[in-house]
Amino acid sequence: MLKYCFSLCIAVLALVSCACAKLNLFQQPSRAEFALGTVCNVTLFDQAREEVYRDIFGHIREIENRMSVNLPQTDVMRINAAAGYAPVPVNNDVFAVIERAVYFAELSGGAFDPTVGPLVSLWGISGDYPRVPSQEEIDAVLPLVNWRNIELNPEERTVFLKIPGMALDLGAIAKGYAADEAAGIVKEARINQAIIDLGGDIVTSGIKKDKTKWKIGIQDPFNSRGVYIGIINVFEGAVVTSGVYERFFEEDGIRYHHLFSPSQGSPAAGNLLSVTVIANSAMDADALSTALFVLGYEKGNALIETLAGIDAVFVFEDKSIRVSPGADFFLTDDEYWIAVE
Ligand code: FAD
Ligand code: MG
């Protein structure tokens, strides 16, 4: 029997120090709204003005209305509908996100690929009827999954998918973009300290009053939401996780998660449970967390080593954790252990 386990688990739980919790969380509670198919949580720690919350969530919804594949008539849906037929003019931000997605597709050798749309639809992992497709079905859609068949025209600001049936899915990058945009609004409003958490894509904004780092918990993949295995300490920046426990279904005791290998056409195999990326930009961290998960540890870590200012925490099935040298990670769960090469 197909057992569908859809989890809206937020991948990581933003933690603030006790002092901040007392000072701010009770006086100025976070604002949580459902958008982008997930719970979006914003906490403004000083001058928590209503209009700033309104601007942030309004802008997140604007992004959703342009980039979603779950709403009709978004720019991305129009691009997909015109696949194989015509280039489609899009909004600046949609063009910029797709350009960045293509950059990460090339950088990751196609492990990250924004044209996974046909695979997402075939497996239906986030839908009501997920299923394991036959190899024939997978083979039929695989030729449609190839970022090289995206044609971008910066002068006209158009996007063209060269083959009919191709489909973009920006699910692995647009949440990060929205988190960066929310952080931009926070800065413009001159709010000094804030945390933005869009379903596990977290941005910390500003330096805490006590000058210590922000503490971001990494979700325990085997436990319920909010149970964390360790803490990443960061000053200002993005912390983004991709994990097998976020969206999946089970059939015959096998878990099928939502992070696809674009070359195989099935959920990426391997011994990883989650990858968390620390970077300045949440959009970059979002794309990279998916890319590193699909690449696996060896290739993923090799990629990280080529990228300045980017770090990662890899959590494995055997409860070992590998941390890149620049990540300030503190293990809190003694069932897990840090593996040293
Ligand atoms: P990530 O690793 O960041 O992304 C995984 C997602 O990216 C997969 O679900 C798939 O869509 C895609 N993907 C899988 N493999 C690859 C790959 N190799 N390369 C590139 N992409 C890949 N969910 C809903 O249920 N309902 C909604 O209405 C809805 N609307 C959304 C609107 C927008 C604009 C966005 C950005 C997302 C929306 N989502 C919706 C998706 C939801 O929030 C996802 O959980 C989320 O995008 C996946 O993020 P993640 O952090 O779990 O994993
Ligand atoms: Mg991602």
* Global morphology: globular
What is the fold-level CATH name, i.e. the topology of the domain at 2-50 and 191-338? T-fold
Largest sheet composition? 9 strands, mixed
Biggest sheet, spatial arrangement of strands:
2-3-7-8-11-16-17-18-20
Mean pLDDT: 90
Protein model, in words:
This protein is of the alpha+beta class and 341 residues long. It has a domain at 2-50 and 191-338: ApbE-like domains (T-fold). The chain is 30% helix and 27% strand. It contains nine helices and 20 strands. It has helices at residues 18-25, 50-67, 75-81, 92-107, 117-123, 135-141, 174-188, 282-295, 297-305, and strands spanning 12-15, 31-35, 38-44, 88-89, 150-153, 158-161, 194-198, 201-205, 214-219, 228-234, 237-243, 248-251, 254-257, 260-261, 266-267, 272-279, 311-316, 320-323, 329-331, 337-338. The strands form five sheets. Strands 2-3-7-8-11-16-17-18-20 form a nine-stranded mixed sheet. The protein has a four-stranded antiparallel sheet with strand order 1-9-10-19, with no helix packed on it. α2 (50-67) packs antiparallel against α7 (174-188) and α7 (174-188) packs antiparallel against α8 (282-295). Residues 1-27 have low confidence and may be disordered. The chain binds flavin-adenine dinucleotide and magnesium ion (MG). The site of flavin-adenine dinucleotide has 32 residues, from α2, α7 and α8.
